[in-house]
Design brief:
- The chain has a domain at about 20-80.
- The termini are far apart.
- Helices cover about 30% and strands about 20% of the residues.
- The protein has about 100 residues and is an alpha+beta fold.
- A hairpin with a 2-residue loop joins strand 2 (about 40-45) and strand 3.
Length: about 100
Amino acid sequence: MLYVKLKKALYGTLQAALLFWQLLSNTLIEWGFTINPYDQCMANKQIRGKQCTIIWHIDDLKISHVEEKVFKDIICHLNEHFGKESPLTNAGVRYWSTWGSH
């Protein structure tokens, strides 16, 4: 039998998901976001007078804000912080306006 000691969490394990949640949550809090007390995988912040919401499941994120530039800035910040090993991509990104905004 072979035993090894890992220097960081192995992707796909429960421990890896928990460690990423802790790291992402703490990072968003440092950036001024508030973690939702009813859904610990949701964070909110007022940016330019409008709500920005980030929700995530394991390592998939959904970022919403009425201004495209805010969305792109957050992606840039996340890539600067986390992107060394796995940069974020805009896969499936859609921009749209709601009926009340122009």
